[in-house]
From TrEMBL, chain A:
Belongs to the eukaryotic RPC7 RNA polymerase subunit family. It holds the Pfam family RNA_pol_3_Rpc31. It comes from Trichoderma asperellum (strain ATCC 204424 / CBS 433.97 / NBRC 101777). Component of the RNA polymerase III (Pol III) complex. Residues 194-207 have a biased composition (Basic and acidic residues). This is DNA-directed RNA polymerase III subunit. The keyword Translocase does not apply. PANTHER family: DNA-DIRECTED RNA POLYMERASE III, DNA-DIRECTED RNA POLYMERASE III SUBUNIT. Keywords: Nucleus.
From TrEMBL, chain B:
Residues 237-257, 371-429 are annotated as: Disordered. This is DNA-directed RNA polymerase III subunit RPC3. Residues 9-66 form the RNA polymerase III subunit RPC82-related helix-turn-helix domain. One of its GO terms (biological process) is DNA-templated transcription. DNA-dependent RNA polymerase catalyzes the transcription of DNA into RNA using the four ribonucleoside triphosphates as substrates. Specific core component of RNA polymerase III which synthesizes small RNAs, such as 5S rRNA and tRNAs. Residues 161-474 form the RNA polymerase III Rpc82 C -terminal domain. InterPro entries: POLR3C_WHD (IPR055207), RNA_pol_III_RPC82-rel_HTH (IPR013197), RNA_pol_III_Rpc82_C (IPR008806), RPC3 (IPR039748), WH-like_DNA-bd_sf (IPR036388). One of its GO terms (molecular function) is single-stranded DNA binding. Keywords: DNA-directed RNA polymerase, Nucleus, Transcription. It is found in: Nucleus. GO terms for cellular component: RNA polymerase III complex. Residues 379-396 have a biased composition (Acidic residues). It comes from the Eukaryota.
């Protein structure tokens, strides 16, 4: 059964006529359409159907979990890349990949936002490394070489007994809450909230910074408060954007001798 | 698990979104380079060892790593756990499933465990104890919200919930060995068993060795459920696992009060494999709902819930092979009836046909063994089934289902007729309801998707599900849908022909598909470029010229599934990237919302414009994540269920 021989009109026959040029499967009779194509051809954009309740709940639980993880001590919020995700990029190889990171340094600080402003004290502090000191770890689950990192003893060699805490976050922020009135945590004692009142509260918060307030919001507030103090006391002149939000135990001095991490505790 | 580039990218992006940049960079390096130690990771990522240690610590805490320390050299190597990383996508769905099927308290606990990775029971207890007073304090402000939330409030409740979930295998125990790669463990056991001491002769037979390897490996796999078995021994009869209504859920927990105290030193985490089993049941039920109707879907859901309570994973372990699923559970009609939600109106959703039009014999046909995979087995009528039935008296399946013999067949026949009679003279509502529900089960077994198999006659009929076959059908449906979506009706027709015929000569294809030759060629080429079909050239002689060559088109199911899977990963990556871009675009508003003082203070400053922007962003985020979870549903069908 020779290809195209008997059928005549078949592709193979034509192929034979051209002197043995293989009858390739894409070699059909149609001439390619050389006219310029329409710039914006009509296109039916497929739209996904709306989420049903189950899916919506799933998404909400995912977002809530994400929110909780972000407020947990193991989350490293610091981003060291300067990439604008709008700009398309391609990376080839490890070196280019690594070059994307660690570019946020003193040299690349944006002079317009680098100056500390009052409102910055309310923004979420950046954390470059997870904070292990605030949660207990199961030592037997870690390889021995990580133990010093995750469960370090303090200077006297005693390990503190840490307590596990549940996440304080149990609701997602939604637009109504963020822009409307209703309660924030620690503010749910039914007092109507107005600007003046908030200011008073903030003042009060500054005053009783020594108190041990259980609330996470207040805790974080305190931390910042202390950092403010540090900044004021040292008055080093330069605003050290790198070390500003770090705690004392993971200070900026590690950046220099990053090669041996053990000795620095 | 084989990881493609897009799967690795997806895992890294997910970790980046959830746990931050540092762990994500390390994970990406682990995916790209495979098993590494800390020094190598430093080389790959150009991070300091201190950062790497911290990042690895986080990954380890969230169960995203395998690690192993060699006992001789004391060197530790790390390896990414792609399954666990991918499961992060499912956390939302799992929480939703736990919430709807087990209850809010259970969801609370599972969510905490997902957040923590794993935790010691003593510490969990402590944490919940310390939360109790604060939640009371909040109750003042939140009013009824606090009390009716259904969250865990006391230590006793925590223990109840915990042991309930452990017995349902949703929560498993963690041991240091859990962080070993199972493949490694298997090979180690294998080397250990087959090793012969110097001078000793290899006396053990191959089969013996194989059995020994299997035993040891199985004991490794069963370690996480040791606590469950222990609890089962204490707890007497198996707990009713479903939370049917809020009321009976409370009762369940109340019944469990005499459970033994849990060892506080045990470390627990969420068992994704069991969660997947639950998600699969959910998916199958909604599949049945789509094909047969809502009520039938509900009945099927109940049936699946009963059947899968002892199933701990969807697919058998690759090393244990078929052994793991040899025994197949069956449930009786009465069981299903007892567990069916009272609110389901079983009278709806079944057609009415005159009695004499129904062929009871074939409707009530009992299949003791799973039918063959091909479609024609379905219409081989009861002669064949009856013959198999008669001859197979001593087969294993028969032994399991015990006592029924030829006589039971006649029972089944009368069974079909009898309800009609009882319906008319007794007319009790329960009987009526039971009968109607039974009709739904028969409907399910008759469907071309073979949702259930009628496998026995005890308790008004026993039913079982051949998950392999049902999932195969579901996979086919998904594959068809995806091909139709991208290549239209004709593409689907061509691939179906190829699936049926195997390899097909190019010249046969147009006549088989009743299409024009050029159309067929264009379609096939498009599909070849997408990796769905491929062509094999068989030259007739040594010259290998085209007109002396046969071209066979074929459709490789496994390959096209892998292809579709990779496309799905890619689509999910795109969803996450789009979300990132959106977040970057709205970063000012988002960081503003995250500020602690936002509310009240800036109230007058923020305009409706910002409010709308933020709201729109939340909606977009929901849509993107929802899309990702839908894609994950398809991924699960192809890969995990």
């Amino acid at each position: 059964m020779s290809r195209g021989g008997g059928r005549g009109g078949g592709r193979g026959g034509r192929g034979g006529g051209r002197g043995g040029r293989p009858g390739l499967p894409w070699d059909d009779t149609d001439e390619p359409d050389a006219r310029p194509s329409e710039l914006f051809p009509p296109y039916v954009v497929p739209t996904a159907r709306d989420l049903n309740t189950t899916e919506y709940n799933g998404v909400q639980y995912f977002l809530l979990l994400r929110h909780q993880i972000h407020s947990s001590p193991l989350y490293t919020s610091k981003r060291t890349s300067l990439i604008d995700p709008n700009a398309p990029r391609k990376t080839y190889g490890r070196d280019q990949m690594n070059a994307l990171y660690d570019v946020k340094s003193k040299a690349s600080v944006d002079p317009f936002s680098a100056m500390p402003t009052y409102s910055q004290r309310f923004s979420r502090p950046e954390r470059a490394l997870p904070e292990w000191s605030s949660r207990p770890v199961c030592r037997e689950m870690y390889p021995p070489e990580l133990l010093d990192t995750v469960d370090s003893a303090d200077a006297s060699g005693v390990r503190k007994r840490r307590k596990l805490e549940l996440s304080k976050v149990n609701a997602l922020p939604n637009a109504e809450e963020a822009f409307g009135m209703p309660a924030i945590e620690g503010e749910d004692d039914g007092v109507p909230v107005d600007g003046k009142h908030i200011l008073e509260r903030l003042d009060a918060l500054r005053d009783d910074e020594g108190d041990d307030v259980g609330d996470a919001e207040d805790d974080e507030g305190l931390e910042e408060e202390e950092e403010d103090e540090v900044y004021d006391d040292e008055d080093a002149g330069d605003y050290d954007a790198e070390g500003y939000f770090d705690n004392g135990d993971e200070g900026g001095d590690d950046y220099g001798d990053g090669d041996d991490g053990e000795g620095t505790y | 698990m084989f990881v493609t580039k897009h799967a690795a990218e997806l895992c890294a992006l997910l970790v980046n979104d959830l746990y931050g940049e540092l762990p994500s960079r390390i994970l990406a390096a682990l995916f790209a380079k495979g098993r590494s130690n800390i020094a190598q990771l430093g080389l790959y990522t150009q991070l300091g060892p201190r950062q790497i240690r911290n990042g690895l610590g986080v990954l380890n805490q969230q169960n995203l790593l395998y690690h192993h320390t060699d006992t001789n050299t004391k060197r530790t190597t790390y390896e990414a756990n792609p399954g666990a990383c991918y499961n992060l996508v499912r956390s939302g769905k799992i929480l939703e499933m736990i919430d709807s099927q087990y209850g809010t308290a259970e969801r609370d606990l599972v969510q905490t465990l997902l957040l923590l990775g794993y935790a010691r029971i003593a510490e969990l207890t402590h944490a919940y104890q310390s939360r109790a007073p604060t939640s009371n304090g909040h109750a003042n402000g939140h009013g009824a919200n606090g009390s009716s939330s259904g969250l865990i409030e006391s230590e006793a409740e925590l223990h109840n919930v915990l042991s309930h979930l452990i017995r349902c295998e949703i929560i498993e125990t963690v041991r240091p060995q859990s962080f070993r790669n199972p493949t490694d463990v298997y090979h180690e056991i294998e080397a250990d068993v087959t090793k012969t001491a110097p001078g000793e002769k290899a006396t053990k037979t191959k089969i013996d060795q194989q059995r020994q390897i299997m035993e040891q490996y199985r004991s490794f796999r069963d370690q996480p459920t040791a606590l469950k078995r222990q609890l089962d021994q204490f707890g007497g009869p198996v707990t009713k696992r479903r939370k049917l209504e809020s009321g009976s859920g409370e009762d369940d927990r109340a019944m469990d009060y005499d459970i033994p105290p849990l060892n506080p030193n045990v470390v627990v985490r969420v068992n994704y494999e069991k969660c997947l089993v639950e998600l699969r049941s959910h998916r199958l039920a909604s599949f049945a709902m789509d094909t047969l109707g809502e009520v039938t879907g509900e009945v099927y859901r109940t049936l699946l819930g009963l059947l899968t309570s002892e199933v701990s994973r969807c697919r058998a372990d690759p090393f244990l092979g078929e052994e793991a699923i040899t025994h197949q559970a069956a449930v009786t009609t009465m069981d299903v009836y007892e567990h069916l939600d009272e609110a389901v109106n079983v009278a709806a959703g079944i057609g009415k046909a005159p009695k004499d039009k129904i062929d009871y014999q074939s409707a009530e046909k009992i299949l003791t063994a799973p039918a063959g995979n091909d479609t024609f087995a379905g219409d081989s009528d009861d002669d064949a089934a009856g013959g198999a039935f008669d001859s197979d008296d001593d087969s294993d399946d028969m032994g399991r289902h015990g006592s029924f013999s030829r006589k039971s067949r006649s029972v089944s026949k009368t069974n079909g007729g009898k309800p009609k009679v009882t319906f008319e003279d007794a007319a009790t509502s329960t009987d009526n309801r039971l009968d109607q529900m039974r009709q739904h089960l028969l409907l399910l077994s008759e469907s071309k998707y073979r949702f259930v198999r009628h496998c026995g006659t005890q308790g008004r009929g026993q039913w079982t599900v051949d998950f392999d076959q049902v999932m195969e059908r579901l996979r086919d449906t998904e594959l068809d849908a995806s091909i139709e979506q991208s290549f239209g009706r004709h593409g689907l027709r061509l691939t179906r022909i190829l699936r049926e015929k195997g390899k097909l000569d190019e010249k046969m294809l147009p006549s088989a598909a009743l299409m024009k030759k050029t159309d067929v060629q264009a379609k096939m080429l498009a599909m070849q470029m997408a990796g769905l079909v491929d062509v094999q050239e068989v030259p007739k002689d040594n010259t290998r010229v085209a007109n002396r060559t046969l071209f066979f088109w074929f459709f490789d199911r496994d390959r096209s599934q892998a292809q579709i899977l990779d496309d799905l990963y890619k689509a999910m990556v795109r969803c996450l990237q789009t979300l990132q871009v959106e977040r970057h675009r709205e970063r000012n508003i988002l960081s503003f919302v995250e500020r602690k003082d936002v509310m009240g203070k800036e109230e007058e400053v923020m305009t409706a414009e910002h409010y709308n922007k933020y709201n729109r962003h939340l909606e977009e985020q929901n849509k993107l994540l929802g899309q990702m979870m839908r894609l994950d549903e398809v991924v699960s069908i192809f890969r995990d269920y």
